[in-house]
Amino acid sequence: MSHPAFLRSSLAALLFVTVSVSAAAQSSRDALVKKLDSLTGAPVVEGRAVGIAVAVVKGNDTLLLKGYGKADVEWNVAMPPDAMFEIGSVTKQFTAAAILQLRDEGKLSLDDDITKYLPDFPTRGNKVTIRRLLDHTSGIKGLTEMQEFGALSVSAYPRDSAYALIKRYPFEFATGDAQIYNNSAFWLLGMVIEKVSGGTYEDYVEKKIFAPLGMNRSSYCNSGEMVERRAHGYGYQQAGLRRAPNNVHTWPFSAGSLCSIAGDIVTWLKALHGGKVLLPKSYAEMTTQSKLNDGTPLRYGMGISVGSDVRGLKYIGHGGGIAGFVSEASWYPDAQLAVVVLMNSNGPVSPGALASELAGEILPVTRPNVVPFVGDAASLVGKYSGPSRGREMTVEITPLAQGIALSVNGAAARPLPWVADWTFRQGNTYLTFKRAGNNGPASELRFDTGGGHYVLKRK
Fold first, then answer.
1. Could you count the other beta carbons within 10 Å of the beta carbon of residue 107?
2. In what side-by-side order are the strands of the sheet with 61-72?
């Protein structure tokens, strides 16, 4: 039989160890939170951002939910953690989810041709399915890249004006042959949602997505509406900081016209990736990499990027940008980690890079090994050109003592780190050469940005 004194001492020792482990864990968490706080606040302290609202949530543990800088510079209003921002293209995943919900209800098919819902749309001999609108492979000219867009976007023209403009332009490539990030496609998806649901796009997202999830501070943006704790947008220009003009939300529509707060977007990310928004089949399709006609995988699903972030961490997410605002909503599935960065200034700070930096403090980052290229560089040297977002892209490849260098549209050439086979990397952009044969020169360069897959032909 054990002696009572021995039992008491054993229990005391166990309690001491438990308390020590708990204290160490708390100390480690406190240090992490302090580092996350410092990283997020730095751009404001350094004068590179006006204001930031951030949320970092791992599982059920909120590591950071805080505002930094100013929501309104003129009135010296501090940024609250629940400030409302225009989230730009983070809107696209809500539009994609709305389409997939309607598919779950049997009201449409992803393989329906767009002319089933918009019979007057000129497809110019292409079969443009809803699926090809969702992954930016339709070939339709992007609305924000049209020369008229700048002047029209600040004017309150009827929405039909945007539709007429989209219909006017020729396609940039045959549907499914390439990928160019495309606001026109998601604008058209908003019209499909309205045709199928029988209501407005605004009503659909607010009643079918925001309300059921309790996203009470999320809505379709309305610049003329009185909104509590709304952040005002700014931009850094050569003349200094300037207040951004109010965005006219006729134009971004279902491609970029939603407003939200950091906490609501965390709610969204946890619900979407937790099976509360879509049926399993639709969620799987949304978060699976799409493919081009030739089978080439893209780093994009439906309204959302799928692959890895700039640090190589497994990631599902999307950024956004609209006059005065930039944003990032990132989900790291292996750790059930949500990172949301909302900023009320266009300028030198990337919300995606900041979100990745925050995630890198929580998740292990594996640095890629940089090894010299051992292939035939001479077969890659030359000029390649083709359509890219906003303009024709011309790339020149030049040889180095070991490997190759890249110049884009006449910019200074930069060395390209080698990945494997005929693939190289510049930041988070992958460049893959296609060769006619094992010994022949490269005939094509695939320029994969994550949201675009440009097919550049050798001159």
1. 13
2. 77-78, 61-72, 51-58, 337-343, 325-332, 314-322, 305-308
Place of tokens 């590591």: 63
Q: CB–CB of 246/86 below 8 Å?
A: no
Tell me the C-alpha distance between 419 and 373, whole Å: 8
Q: What is the largest CA-CA distance in the chain?
A: 91
Question: In terms of Cα–Cα distance, which of 158, 186, 175 is closest to 122?
Answer: 175
Give the residue carrying structure tokens 């509590």.
Answer: 228
What integer pLDDT is reported at residue 222 of this predicted model? 87
User: Encoding tokens for residue 324?
Assistant: 């005065």
Q: Any residues with CB less than 8 A from the CB of 89 and at least 6 apart, and which?
A: 183, 255, 256, 318, 319, 320, 321, 322
Q: Is the separation of the CB atoms in 146 and 165 below 8 Å?
A: yes
Average pLDDT over residues 366-390: 89
CA distance 57 to 159: 38
Please list the residues that pair with 456 across neighbouring strands. Answer: 445
Does residue 353 surpass a pLDDT of 70? yes
SS3 breakdown of the chain: % helix, strand, coil, rounded to 5?
35, 25, 40
CB 289 within 8 A of CB 299: yes
Between helix 4-45 and helix 351-362 the angle, nearest 10°, is 160
CA–CA gap between residue 137 and residue 185 (Å, rounded): 9
Q: Is the pLDDT of residue 47 over 70?
A: yes
* Mean pLDDT value across residues 79-101: 98
Could you give phi then psi for residue 275, rounded to 5 degrees?
80, 20
Phi then psi dihedrals of residue 394, to 5 deg: -120, 125
Residues whose CB is less than 8 angstroms from the CB of residue 307 and which lie 6 or more positions away in sequence, other chains included: 289, 299, 314, 315, 450
Helix (H, G, I), strand (E, B) or coil at 433: strand
Binned at pLDDT 50, 70 and 90, residue 427 comes out as confident
> What is the tens place of the pLDDT at every residue in 260-296?
999 999 999 999 999 999 999 999 999 999 999 999 9
Q: Which class for 159: exposed (0-12), middle (13-18), buried (19 or more C-beta within 10 A)? A: middle
Q: How confident is the model at residue 8 (pLDDT cuts 50, 70, 90)?
A: low
Helix axes 159-168, 183-197, angle to 10 degrees: 120
Q: By mean pLDDT, which of 7-21, 27-41, 364-378 is the weakest? A: 7-21
